[in-house]
Design goal:
Blueprint: H1 2-104, H2 106-142
């Protein structure tokens, strides 16, 4: 019996040691489970962050393509504008060359001056007519000719007998 009691006591000690080891292992397993849950949460956050970054990258690539397209259009527009300016400069050079030709060709210069003189004569004649119309309108007002005060002498030019 003593032997059995000793064996029971040793078995109790072994059970106690196994219980302690079991508690430690359970605590370690629980810590591992918490760490695994934390790691899973971090992985899930990284997956979400990765998806967000992919979305932002897609948007940035799309915007980059749009900017490149706009830049190409602007470059094309600037080229068109530059070409238009070059054409204007070429036309100006041609006009200047034509004008130089007019100044050197006496016949063309004479025609140009004749047209210029005619234009000046017409402007002076128009000015004289305007002065005469104003004088006649004022004279009619002084004579108190009420039926004709509102008469516009410029309208008379539209009648067929003046043409």
């Amino acid at each position: 019996m003593k032997l059995q009691a000793k064996e029971i006591e040793m078995l109790k000690k072994t059970v106690d040691q196994l219980n302690e080891k079991s508690l430690v292992l359970n605590a370690d397993a629980q810590n591992a489970l918490l760490a695994l849950n934390d790691h899973s949460r971090l992985v899930q956050e990284q997956v979400l962050e990765n998806a967000d970054l992919k979305s932002k990258c897609y948007i940035a690539e799309k915007e980059n393509k749009e900017w490149k397209k706009l830049q190409q259009q602007d470059t094309y527009s600037m080229e068109q504008f530059g070409n238009a300016l070059k054409n204007v400069l070429i036309n100006n050079d041609l006009i200047i060359e034509s004008l130089k030709g007019i100044h050197t060709d006496p016949e063309e210069k004479e025609l140009l001056m004749a047209g210029h003189n005619q234009t000046l004569q017409l402007l002076r004649a128009q000015e004289k007519l305007n002065v005469r119309v104003r004088e006649l309108e004022e004279q009619m007002k002084k004579n108190e000719d009420s039926d004709r005060v509102e008469y516009d002498f410029c309208d008379a030019l539209n009648y067929s007998f003046f043409n």
